[in-house]
Specification:
Order of helices and strands: EEEEEEEEEEEEEEEEEEEEEEEEEEEE
Largest sheet: 4 strands, antiparallel
Structural class: mainly beta
Distance between the termini: 19 Å
Radius of gyration: 21 Å
Number of helices: 0
Shape: globular
Length: about 375
């Protein structure tokens, strides 16, 4: 059986050597996707991107690479007490979730060490019966975290009992039975949660419309995005101050701040004399251009339907079910992977060159960068855009 190895493609801001400063990534900005190396040649390297460093994890080891103290290309290596399950990065720290459910924090400094995060015990009432010993005494249950996410001003976690934490405090309790968390993701100041029923909940700062509610304001606890209630959502993302979601019907919805076309909607009206609204509080159905995909036919009308969506601070990427990658928004640092130095942003989704990805790839968006992780045969060399 042919062995496959993980390979990474990177585009965007790289002034601090966040991507190991490989031969193709030595410039301050990468304006097209280029191969990069991980600190360890593992088959399953976890990745999280901040604007000034990148976090990599393989098994029990984690590396932070970039501007950590004073100079570019600095690297910190730390070993965790158990296998690392998930990473989330922001400017001030990296959250690390271990396979045993423990949560740690690592600051981006050369002398930093792992700091265990102790979550407060929840005092919120649940309908779950209390587990008791054979002598009738209540059993103490430890908090096991299953999902983490963080932004510039927000750090959140979800436990195996569906408790929502604004780390380290418990702020909300969802029903434990027949309620599953599918995704948890953060923007700069807000959080989105997708459950197994296809419903979206949002909380945090919504002053730029990023929460998807009709009234701009703050929400301290998760609140259902009612505008999308009844529409089964399959995938969500949170940018800096915007959000997006894909429905089971293959529709793309976006809401929030559209300063640079990151919602895939026009910034200026035809003629350029009047500006379109910058803030869209309620989810908008985004009209996508027709594709010229060779796999599309009359018998496969939805072969190019949106499948997954990813967002950075002010850019959005869309993976279509044919494997094509589309992008919109701010592209000054090359975060969209389009070789257009004279274009600072796109206000409509466009195809990213000739890239065609396997649908099991993983895409991470940092504030000003994008990383694609995929598997390919070990002996294969060179970039190759049809992955």
């Amino acid at each position: 059986m042919q062995r496959q190895r993980q390979r990474l493609l990177f585009t965007g801001f790289n002034a601090f050597g966040q991507t190991n400063k490989g031969n193709d990534c030595a410039a301050a900005d990468n304006i097209v996707f280029s191969d990069v190396d991980t600190p360890h040649p593992g088959d399953n390297c976890l990745i999280a991107l901040s604007w000034h460093y990148t976090a990599y994890a393989v098994e029990e080891k984690i590396w932070l690479r970039g501007l950590l103290d004073n100079d570019p290309n600095e690297c910190l290596e730390v070993e965790a007490p158990d296998r690392i399950q998930a990473l989330a990065a922001t400017d001030s720290h990296c959250l690390i979730l271990l396979q045993n459910g423990d949560l740690y924090k690592l600051q981006p400094h050369l002398e930093a060490t792992l700091q265990r995060i102790q979550l407060e015990k929840t005092t919120l009432k649940t309908n779950t019966p209390v587990k008791r010993s054979i002598f009738g005494l209540p059993k103490e249950s430890s908090t096991v975290i299953t999902h983490i996410a963080c932004g510039t001003q927000i750090n959140v976690a979800i436990s195996s009992t569906n408790a929502v934490y604004s780390i380290p405090s418990c702020l909300y309790q969802f029903p434990e039975r027949q309620w599953r968390v599918q995704q948890l993701i953060c923007g700069h100041e807000h959080a989105l949660l997708l459950n197994g029923n296809g419903d979206i909940y949002s909380w945090g700062n919504g002053l730029r419309g990023q929460l998807g509610h009709s009234v701009l304001g703050m929400e301290e606890t998760p609140l259902l995005v009612e505008a999308l209630a009844g529409i089964k959502i399959t995938f969500i993302t949170a940018g800096g101050w915007h959000s997006a979601a894909i429905s089971a019907f293959g529709d793309l919805y976006a809401w929030g701040h559209n300063s640079h076309g990151q919602m895939g909607m026009r910034v200026m009206k035809p003629g350029g004399l009047l500006k379109e609204p910058t803030v869209y509080p309620l989810p908008q159905l985004v009209e996508l251009p027709n594709t010229e995909c060779c796999c599309q036919s009359e018998s496969h009308e939805d072969s190019c339907a949106p499948l997954r969506v990813y967002a950075g601070s002010r850019h959005t990427l869309l993976l279509r079910s044919c494997g094509k990658l589309w992008g919109s928004g701010w592209s000054y640092h090359g975060q969209l992977g389009k070789q257009q130095r004279n274009v600072q942003f796109l206000d409509a989704f466009q195809s990213i060159n000739d890239i065609r990805l396997n649908l099991d790839c993983d895409i991470k968006c940092g504030p000003w960068a994008t990383m694609i992780s995929y598997l390919r045969p070990e002996e294969e060399s060179g970039l190759g855009l049809k992955l």
